[in-house]
């Protein structure tokens, strides 16, 4: 798949783990997504020991959405094997759909690569995982990368890693807040990314309720659209409430294709004006009461992307940070193989500071799977 030269908007139904750990339900979701007219269905693949530290897996998970008493038990219940992914891929392709998955760690990426997928998704939680991004940049696999809970400096660093490796990739504007309020969707970053990274496709991965923001994203030039999908919004699981049901997904697909049949309404300038969007929404009758909605969703800004307050909860829970890959003694110099990146408990130095810790001298003994802390090294400036 040539992600840099998409001929039409590529619509992804993000099944994620809304299948409740049941492959029969997963196939039913694939069938319903195909009936809605999407291009692709996407799941999530994790090697739990590669993604989480032991403490993170063992933390209690007391929630009405939990499938286990600890977070590790909960996640393990929802995981499919690579053999099951192969079965789902075959079924999706028999329904005329592209099949893909988010690779939540290097082990999962290397497993998914063996399935010869048309692309692999990199979720927002791994966009700052610098050693991971360097690894996948060399794999000759098309990549779609989300940018939630990341700063513009980190996004640009990742763009440069992939671009310098001549990777086939796209970036998605994303806000890591579940569900995302309209005023937090900050859709103007689609225009900003298209200006900053003009040689690649820019898309939108939405976590808001409804389809209005998704329509605006397409009007602003997004070439990829990803939305969570469910059969029933009332099911157990934190993603169901913000997901589109089959009827809503079908409606969204119809509206996206309507926009594409009227290319003159798409605002391709790097600075999209609210009046232009209002005229386009009104002309195509995309949704009701557009003026107030557009004002909230498309607040003009020339400010570099930062981590927004609404994303802090997600970053604290699922953001990845630096950890030690083995026991080390006080006085040792840290080398690359000593440092890994995982969801850690506690969550300490963010993964984007990986390069800063290499070469530092340890001030204390440290142990496998422990988080790297600022007080650990002789020069603790991160």
TrEMBL record:
Enumerate the InterPro entries for this protein: AFP_Neu5c_C_sf, Aldolase_TIM, PseI-like, PseI/NeuA/B-like_N, SAF, SAF_AFP_Neu5Ac, SAF_PseI/NeuA/NeuB
Q: What is the lineage of its organism?
A: Eukaryota, Metazoa, Ecdysozoa, Arthropoda, Hexapoda
What name appears for this protein in its UniProt entry?
Answer: AFP-like domain-containing protein
Q: Give the GO terms filed under biological process for this record.
A: carbohydrate biosynthetic process
Where would I find the AFP-like domain in this sequence?
321-380
Q: State the Gene Ontology terms under molecular function.
A: N-acylneuraminate-9-phosphate synthase activity
Q: Which domain of life does this protein belong to?
A: Eukaryota
Task: Read off the SUPFAM superfamilies from this record.
Answer: AFP III-like domain, Aldolase
């Amino acid at each position: 798949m040539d992600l840099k030269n998409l001929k039409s908007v590529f619509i992804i139904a993000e099944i994620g783990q809304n299948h409740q750990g049941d492959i029969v339900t997963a196939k039913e979701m694939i069938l319903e997504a195909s009936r809605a007219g999407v291009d692709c269905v996407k799941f999530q693949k994790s090697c739990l020991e590669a993604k989480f530290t032991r403490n993170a897996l063992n933390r209690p998970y007391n929630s009405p959405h939990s499938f286990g008493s600890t977070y590790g038990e909960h996640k393990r219940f929802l995981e499919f094997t690579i053999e099951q992914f192969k079965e789902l891929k075959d079924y999706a392709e028999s329904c005329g759909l592209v099949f893909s998955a988010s690779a939540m760690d290097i082990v999962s990426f290397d497993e998914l690569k063996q399935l010869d997928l048309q692309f692999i998704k990199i979720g927002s939680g791994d966009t700052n995982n610098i050693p991971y991004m360097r690894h996948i940049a060399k794999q000759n696999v098309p990549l779609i990368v989300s940018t939630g809970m990341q700063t513009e400096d980190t996004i640009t660093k990742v763009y440069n890693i992939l671009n310098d490796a001549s990777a086939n990739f796209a970036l998605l504007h994303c806000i890591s807040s579940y569900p995302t309020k309209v005023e937090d969707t900050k859709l103007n970053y689609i225009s900003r990314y298209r200006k900053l990274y003009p040689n690649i496709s820019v898309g939108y991965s939405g976590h808001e309720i409804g389809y209005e923001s998704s329509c605006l994203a397409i009007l602003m030039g997004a070439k990829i659209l990803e939305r969570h999908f469910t059969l029933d919004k009332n099911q157990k699981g934190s993603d169901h409430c913000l997901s589109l049901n089959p009827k809503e997904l079908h409606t969204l697909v119809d509206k996206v294709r309507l926009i594409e049949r009227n290319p003159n309404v798409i605002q391709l300038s790097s600075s999209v004006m609210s009046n232009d969007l209002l005229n386009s929404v009104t002309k195509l009758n995309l949704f009701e009461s557009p003026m107030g909605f557009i004002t909230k969703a498309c607040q003009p800004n020339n400010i570099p992307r930062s981590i927004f307050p609404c994303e802090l909860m997600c970053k604290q829970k699922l953001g990845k940070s630096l950890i030690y890959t083995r026991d080390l003694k006080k006085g040792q110099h840290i080398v690359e193989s000593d440092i890994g990146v995982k969801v850690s408990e506690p969550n300490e130095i963010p993964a984007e500071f990986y390069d800063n810790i290499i070469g530092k001298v340890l001030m204390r003994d440290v142990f496998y799977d422990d988080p790297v802390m600022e007080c650990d090294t002789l020069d603790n400036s991160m």
